[in-house]
Amino acid sequence: MSPIGKAFPRKEGRKKVTGKALYVDDLSFPGMLHGVTVRSPSPRGRITKISFEGDIPWDEFTVVTAKDIPGANYVALILNDQPYLAADFVNHPEEPILLLAHRDKYLLEEARRNVRIEIEEQPAIFNLEDSLARKEIIWGEDNVFKKYLVDKGNVDEVWANADFIVEGEYETGAQEQLYIENNGAIAIANADKGVTVWGSMQCPYYVHKALVKLFDLPEEKIRIIQTETGGGFGGKEEYPSLIAGHAALLAWKSGKPVKMIYDRAEDMVATTKRHPSRTRHKTAVTKDGKLLAVEIDFVIDGGAYCTLSPVVLSRGTIHSAGPYVCPNVRIHSRAVATNVPPHGAFRGFGAPQSIFALERHMDKVARTVGLTPEEFRRRNFIHEGETTATSQVIRERVDMDQLLTRALQLSNYHEKRERFARENAESNGRFRKKRGVGFATFMHGAGFTGSGEVYLQSVVSAEATVEGVVRILAASTEIGQGTNTIFSQIASEALGLDVDLIEIVQPDTAHVPNSGPTVASRTSMVVGKLVESAVTGLKQTLIGSSLLPHEYGQSEFKRACAEYIARFGSLKTSSTYQPPPNVHWDDEKYQGDAYGAYAWAVYVAEVSFDELTYAAHVEDFVALQEVGRVLNPVLAAGQIEGGVAQAIGFTLFENVVWKDGRMANNQMTNYIIPTPVDIPPIRVYFEENPYAYGPGGAKGIGELPMDGAAPAILNALENATGVSFNEIPLLPETLMVKLL
Amino acid sequence: MNNRHTVEFKVNGEARSLEVFSMARLLDVLREQLQLTGTKEGCGEGECGACTVIIDGQIVNSCLVPMAQVNGCEITTIEGVAGGDQLHAVQQAFIDHGGAQCGICTPGMVLAAVDLLNRNPEPTEHDIRNGLAGNLCRCTGYMKIFESVVRAYKK
Amino acid sequence: MRAFIPNYQLTTPASLAEALTLLESEPGVWKPFAGGTDLMVLLEAGRLAHRNYINIWGLNELRGIEATDTHVTLGALTTYTEVQTNPILRREFPMLCQAASETGGLAIQNRGTLGGNIVNASPAADSPPALLAYDAEIELVSNRGSRWLPYQGFHTGYKQMHIDPDELLARIRLPRNTAGLTHYYRKVGTRKAQAISKVCFAAVGKTGQGKLMETRIVVGSVAPIVVRCVQTEAALRGQRPDEETIAAACASLVREISPIDDIRSTAKYRLQVAKNLLADFLATLRT
Ligand SMILES: Cc1cc2nc3c(=O)[nH]c(=O)nc-3n(C[C@H](O)[C@H](O)[C@H](O)COP(=O)(O)OP(=O)(O)OC[C@H]3O[C@@H](n4cnc5c(N)ncnc54)[C@H](O)[C@@H]3O)c2cc1C
Ligand code: FES
Ligand code: FES
């Protein structure tokens, strides 16, 4: 019986429900010190003085500044512009300047309060409009980290003769990942043995790469171990390189293990968030609702340093034109600098921002043309054989029409549309609750963009033990999304063994190969495929050595492993990424096959709007998607539900209040995420269409649910209130202003 | 000034006597002095529920309880929920029905669910949502948590 | 944890008398510590300025809910959970029960106390509007004796109140005169649960022959203290709750409150929602 598609319980579930799973803050080492970061008091300027004040036994403290860095003072990533510790100039109000360590946690905080940093301030800019307008040049020559241009056909020739031209502008705010486990790391470091870090992270090899540079040590002297990780959502993609480096610098200087765990206030104020964005659309359509030209200007606020902004921008750019076919497309996009802490990876990686704009805009275009949102989209959906904005020919079977039909049925869309229109019009002179329904149709590319996967050259190994247990070695991390379980199922399927005979090795760069970062919905689809081929290699080796027949049972497999290991010492195979055939990407022109495969989806939201309080509430949510083969229905639905809940927060609750570049509401009391009472029933449905190059037919799934909720909810709110809203988060305060 | 005091209490049935600062948080003492690291810290301000424990039959946020208030109390942490190898029905349901993803909210969530079912053996969906309202989860979107609670009592 | 814990002291007296003696002996040195749900949050953030506290959590003298023919009396340590489960309160003071059920989550309700809510003196606190609308009285005790005073007027400004350093809030008393009243309580928070109020509105009212005989209207989060809107109440007396009256009442309300912008909401929103709630309350009295 194939394990694919079965609801196997989470592999590490028992540890988690009994409190035995060990997260980084649960570890402790003899003689361990605690570490903290002293940050800039100002958004931008020159450091003029650092003084150690108060009644603090300063000689007991380990103090690290930029001068103590043995290697290069930058976080190695893309542009290497972010220092580990600012040496003389700060570019954002939470920039790390100095590190302290001490045995006593309480005294350490007292000491942190008593370090005084003086800054000669320089003018700073805090939003993308000011950055674009170059009110101040704060980065490079023009404040632009990266720009892309995607061109298909020629939009300029269309405007003059179009029946309709529809323009719109859309904005999204910053969003905090708010994993419940804060960032943290423990380091042991010395010149002799090198550097070892345990931490909460998504990408052990990112940290590894960064620490090799920071310490100027050979690769084998840096060892990174992922501990159980309490959520990431992108927030533990690049940031752990920073905190791991800081802990390691303190450990290096003190000669003792150093634990550095952020509290919630620090995690919120200092670490990455989703990039705020602004998108402009200009669309030409015929009078019967066919798209003629689409011009998109997409801008994201990258914060003070480049970090991953180019990659976030890339995904946002490619997704900005959606699952529609249009002969003429121009997308111009930029990531710009501001003096706020760097924005970074967050589930969806730029796509939720640009898809929000697109799917709001599609409703607007439909209204202008005089078609229903449904009919307008149906006239423009992309099909097999047609080309996307990047001129990628869609080679998989896509049936957005059918997905839309089914989603609208499941949500009772038409009946509700009619009923709500009637009910909303009735009045009894009192404040009412108005209702509305809306939807979004979208796609999400799985895996790295363009040639990303080819550059990565990911590797997975599989190793058998004498007991016939197969151990999977990969750097892909379990962060709650189910990596351990999914890999076990894939390996179990490929080998015909019980899931229990598969063991997933803890990601530790000393033992596991680099299977690439745990991002971009790539773990099941891309790395899972490598797991499949690695264990298949293992099986082939046994069969090739005549120790195992083609048809075998579990006990035969065990015996074969034991025999092979007895003869040859060990049994281990590896598999390296091979791109699917016919995937071509041009990084210069930004054209070609942006992703090997896409997930396709239709999300429908029903909302209520309370005239008394101006509060919008999602009452019902239908999420229908085609994600190839569903490997584990419980885990898959869990991913979708969690993503939709985060997206509801993104849309209606989660507002980062900025004050001079700093998050002012950096407490869970004041940064509002949904509680169990705020989430509607989220009804998840899958359509299956196996993908030939994914393991067991699977495509990526993790980021998809972040994309569609925001536009679906705002489309529903427009349906309820008759007013068009084009920015999120959409709080009652904004709704009120727009409606009065 | 020496603000250390002896505090006596029971954790998971076991009597304990500790020298602690009177204002030290129960959360820190559980995790650091008693090595009961199953109780998690998510916010330190009573907002997330990751630090939930049961004191004298009621759930509390252990990040908000100073040690001076623990004297003479009986505390149950996540480590005390299962009976030896036999998981509590709530724990088993969380495993079987996807109630735990990253697991960091899980100990608190399980305790809140156990407490809910103790008080209300057949809660409605409304009861479940409200009973767990002080426990935030960022991974699951709560659906599978609600389902796990329902399955735990329907067993 | 940002506080330097060794600097703090939390001492546990054996009785109320011992607690009062401690408060008296070193005036201003000691402050009460009840459920800790406000104080511990400040401690965590390193913003708890005061260092020495008396742990009153165990003082049974400050616990319990008692009813006589004319009053219900609640100990200052009454928790939100206790409020919600008391049958008399549920029947006669539903707004207090609703406030309790909408305060924090269950873990907060098990630990947070009415006394703490009052003395913490947040303008966004959720029980005070209900207590004020029910004409609560409070008892302050010290070694000098006990005094009862109307809760209305207790708070004088932001975190300012009529309590001396040697006094404890001991009890809260509610007159059992709610028969025949319409109760209207609405907390407008940042989300549906575990939320801080942006506006909190509590009111009771009674009509006779289509006219407003009596109203008591209280709004929280719209001024430095929770506001009992006495002028608006006066303006409403004897009026029919029609559109014109509602408009006049809203105009009066605006003069009685002074909301501000903060990280949770805007002055504009608070003002508008307070008016809407008042209008909605009055509309419920129309039928
Ligand atoms: C997560 C969370 C959610 C919350 N949600 C809400 C909410 O929705 N609505 C709301 O109104 N509040 C809320 N609060 C605030 C808090 O729970 C309440 O104000 C609670 O009633 C405080 O009571 P306590 O006993 O815990 O006070 P403590 O923290 O012990 O004390 C608060 C203050 O009152 C003083 N004090 C306490 N008791 C007495 C007494 N008997 N005599 C004299 N002085 C005294 C103390 O000295 C201190 O200054 C929330 C708090 C948290 C942490
Ligand atoms: S850590 Fe105690 S409630 Fe969040
Ligand atoms: S499972 Fe990750 S926070 Fe709940």
Give a written overview of the molecule:
The complex is a heterotrimer of chains A (740), B (155) and C (287). Among the domains of chain A are: 167 residues, Aldehyde Oxidoreductase, domain 3 (Alpha-Beta Complex); 195 residues, Aldehyde Oxidoreductase, domain 4 (2-Layer Sandwich), CATH 3.30.365; 119 residues, Aldehyde Oxidoreductase, domain 4, CATH 3.30.365.10. Chain A is built from 18 helices and 28 strands. Chain A has a 7-stranded mixed β-sheet, sandwiched between helices. In chain A, helix 4 packs across helix 5 and helix 8 runs parallel beside helix 17. With 155 residues, chain B is of the alpha+beta class. In chain B, strand 1 and strand 2 form a beta hairpin. In chain B, helix 2 packs across helix 5. Chain C is of the alpha+beta class and 287 residues long. Chain C contains 11 helices and 14 strands. The mean pLDDT of chain C is 97. At the A-C interface, helix 2 and helix 18 of A face helix 11 of C. One FE2/S2 (inorganic) cluster (FES) binds next to loops of chain B.
List descriptors.
heterotrimer; A: alpha+beta; Aldehyde Oxidoreductase, domain 3; Aldehyde Oxidoreductase, domain 4; six-stranded mixed sheet; 29% helix; globular; B: alpha+beta; Ubiquitin-like (UB roll); DNA polymerase, domain 1; 2 domains; 5 helices; binds flavin-adenine dinucleotide; binds FE2/S2 (inorganic) cluster
